[in-house]
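for ur thesis appendix - Multiple inositol polyphosphate phosphatase 1. copy paste whatever u need, i formatted it the way the template wanted (i think)
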Amino acid sequence: MLLTRLPDKMTLAAAVLFFLLTLVSNSRADRDFDVRHRLSTVTRYSAVKDIVDYSFQPTDIPVGCTPIHLNLVARHGTRSPTKKRMRELEKLASHIKELLKDAKEKNLSPQKVPAWLLKWESPWKGKLRGGELDTKGEEELYQLGIRVRERFPDLFNEEYHPDVYPIKTTQVPRASASAVAFGMGLFSGNGSLGLARHRAFAVTSESRASDITLRFFDCCQTYKDFRKSHEPAVDKLKEPIIAEITCALAKRYEFNFTRQDISSLWFLCKQETTLLDITDQACSLFSPTEVALLEWTDDLEVFMLKGYGKSLNYRMGVPLLKDVIQSMDQALKAKEDNQAPGSYEKARLRFAHAETVVPFSCLLGLFLEGSDFQRIQKEEPLDFPPKPPKNRSWRGSIVAPFAGNNMLVLYSCPANSSSKYFVRALHNEHPIAMPGCGGTDFCPFEVFKVCMIIFRLLCL
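the 3d part is after this line
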């Protein structure tokens, strides 16, 4: 009898051990979980700028190579919610009052009601305007400007002139304000204004209706039609996740939450975290697993409507890519002609939106998996980003957080036998692999140019 029962006891013991290990593992995962990293494109720059792919080994810049030109494409910094979203939060506040009244009538246990909900009102209640750059966004771009100057001192050692350091932005105030904040950091100490010795500098922009370089998404009617027709399909893909979490929260708190409530509470979670440094209110309603799923739905939307989900999304950004290559060609020619310092452009600095940075990242082939680069060259559709708990490269919080940026730095390497000029790719200030350049971050300019021209030919 003992021999026949022993396997059952061993199986039971193994099951108990597995259960305990799972609890410990989940507990550790929950402790390591940081909602500040999980807010898709509503993530603050400081929370994610130093999250890198440690499996990628950056290239050591060869001795004798010096940077001669820099291209920057940056998103505006952290901003306040738009008027439309502020009205959404006011509607949420009204509905929460109804839910609380209903809970009181049903004599629900006080433990079921999160304390913060009892007196909650939207922090943006009564505001007449929205979408402007927040003070945190100002600081993000100001500090970025300082770091760029410190990292590339040889590029920013010239007397300021708008032809040497052109700063371009869209006409949207949060983008132009970001450009100003960046310029204040970049040129701080080099002027005569105030105690910080700031200096005046020029920021230029094109009309919204004709800005095909930085607001191509607003100038392309084909894209507008595509987005309008595909937004319902994106919502349909997100619907099962929202429905599942709605049921879970309704059961957890015994509130008659609607799907719209859950969408609005998730939006509130992102705004509270990013703008107010509050993570123990709206965000605390969701488990780490639920946050990961909600983040995935946001990332899926970015993928489909701004990223690799449709080649149109990034192909319309070719005028920006063309502008980048043209600036490099001009810098290379100035170097070859031995032009005098101060007579040619050393950096082209651009400030725009997620709808600009995401397509530009796609044109560079960033954040692709396996053979995806070959597939986008053939304009084949890519698979959706894997659903949690699977890992994925495509994360909105990494691809285009507030103040997210791509820098392409042109280097002169006279001693190199294979090429005299190289391009280094930096994403959020860190070297990143370019699949079209053999998976390196430091690519011969001729190779980079041919790789990028492939996209241009596809768009002719």
